[in-house]
Amino acid sequence: MPSRDELRDHLIQTRIAGEVATSRENNLDHYASLANREPYLMLGLTLSQDWAFPEILALMAKAAGVVADPEHRFGQDTIDPERTIDALDMMAGVVAGALAVPGARVLVATGHPTGLLTVHLALARLAVELGATLITPAEGWKYTNHYFGRTRTIRYLDSVAMVSDKGAFTHSHDADPMREMLAELGDAPPDLVIADHGWAGAAGEAGVLTVGFADSNDPALFVGEAEGKLAAVVPLDDNVLPRHYAPLTEYLVTRVTHALGA
User: Fold this and answer.
1) Could you give the domains of the chain?
2) Which residues contact 155 (CB under 8 A, 6 or more apart)?
């Protein structure tokens, strides 16, 4: 496992954290859109508090380490690598607690097949190694995306759920697939969901124990965490080269196994 210092340096060098690729303009636009309850950015969550733009910005500065100054409107924005690592530690504790229960039923899903899929695949393998059961509800279910009008299908790769658009796994904010999966499961929901985007938001909204990953321009999951609907959310750039996530994944997997004494 990389040390904390080694991981922090790696996060900065690969721009998983530190000065990330997501622009300040994009971040602020998404915070304003969430304040206006834009469905695409709600990620399947409802908000019990008002969460105006200044409150969302303040939360994102605290939870993810973006620049707190509202007058900083253009150019570079940041994710604090210390907050990323702290959140990984928190996520590891939640995952270990869930996997400590014999036969825990786990659902893993991602809306970022070109980036975070590699992390989710490793966590799915770890869950099985530790005696959990990966569940794969609603495989093959089709729906029409509300925003782009495309038909998409739930598919699994090594028990990690994604949506496909004809022959390709695709980026998705959609919450409908997770809602359908939970509806199919009925009175037997998963004991843990590991996810991102609308997969995580919809699971947390339904009251399922959920941990997730989120970029600095996806504030809804951090709001969901602040309202107690998600147990842990890790701030990071969610679409760097997949190989760059390897040290982060090793750190997280090792923290989980150490917590379980495995």
Assistant:
1) 1-262 (3.40.50)
2) 139, 140, 161, 162, 163, 164, 169
Cα–Cα distance, 63 to 71 (Å, whole number) = 19
The amino acid that residue 204 corresponds to is G
DSSP 109: E
Please compute, for residue 4, the number of CA atoms within 13 A of its CA located in the half-sphere on the CB side.
9
- Statement: residue 172 has pLDDT above 80: yes
Secondary structure element (H or E) that encloses residue 12, with its range:
helix 4-14
What span, in angstroms and rounded, lies between the C-alpha atoms of 38 and 173? 12
- Euclidean distance between CA atoms 117 and 112, whole angstroms: 6
- Give CA separation, 165 vs 71, 142, 172, 174, 253, in Å: 40, 10, 10, 13, 31
Q: What is the pLDDT of residues 215-229, one digit of tens each?
A: 999 999 999 999 999
pLDDT tier at 146, thresholds 50, 70, 90: confident
| Alpha-carbon separation of residue 179 from 70, 113, 163 (angstroms) | 35, 20, 13
pTM: predicted TM-score of the whole model, two decimal places: 0.96
Q: How far is residue 207 from each of residues 111, 190, 204, measured CA to CA in Å?
A: 20, 10, 5
Angstrom distance (rounded) from CA 120 to CA 124: 6
Q: Do residues 16 and 248 make contact, with C-beta atoms less than 8 angstroms apart?
A: yes
Q: How many CB atoms lie under 10 A from the CB of residue 228?
A: 9
148-159 per-residue burial string, b: 16 or more CB within 10 A, e: under 16:
eeeebbbebeeb
